[in-house]
Amino acid sequence: MYYPLFRSLRARQIVIFGVTHGTVRKEIGDPKGILLLDGYKEWNGCGKNIGISPLRDYLLSRLDTSMFRLDNKAHRLEHSIEALVPWIQYFNPDATITPIMVTAMPYERMDEISKQLASIIADYVATDHLTLGKDLVFSVLQTPITTEKIFPILPSAWMTLLMQRVLHKISVSHPSFYQDRSIRRKSGC
Question: Which of 32, 42, 54, 63 could staple 49 via S-S, CB 3.0–4.6 A?
């Protein structure tokens, strides 16, 4: 996410994909092929704390346990997501976040996890009658995720793949969603 975009970010819930840097990976046993979620109720912010979106608990209760690890230590040590919090709070003080750290993984694993993640997020959006872009938005820190044996994957690749899958899943599983919402391709969703 780039600074000028923060001014127009007004969604109530922000899903943030962040990298897992080498020093953090070393400290937490260098997990691969999983997402790292946290169990915090809120994160420290500037002036006030920022809340965690209900989507995080929704993911924890539905995502296959082989696809993620609940790891407060990883989130406490890693700064890739934390660096975005002050900007979010400044421009959108009432927003909540769903922080997701991405570990190194081959494309096939990313494909597998993103399919399930997209399905869960699409159900969450439809069940809670949310509008993508207005109520829920995805954000990334543009830093490659890499190890010696796995080629770099930008978190933006995650977001692109996931967003395509979420929109497809919504259109297939909940066709009335598009009839009831003002989501259009030209809106950037």
Answer: 42
How does pLDDT run across 108-134, given as a tens digit for each residue?
A: 888 899 889 888 988 898 899 888 778
Q: Flag whether the pTM goes above 0.85.
A: no
CB 96 within 8 A of CB 12: yes
Question: 48: which strand partners?
Answer: none
* Complete DSSP assignment for 104-168: ---HHHHHHHHHHHHHHHHHHHHHTT--BTTTEEEEE----B--SSS--B-HHHHHHHHHHHHHH
CA-to-CA dists, residue 37 to 57, 96, 115, 165, angstroms? 10, 15, 17, 20
How far apart are alpha carbons 143 and 19 in whole angstroms? Answer: 7
Q: Which residue in this structure is represented by tokens 């006030």? A: 48
Residue 20 contacts residue 145 (beta carbons within 8 Å): yes
Distance of CA 171 to the CA centre of its chain: 20
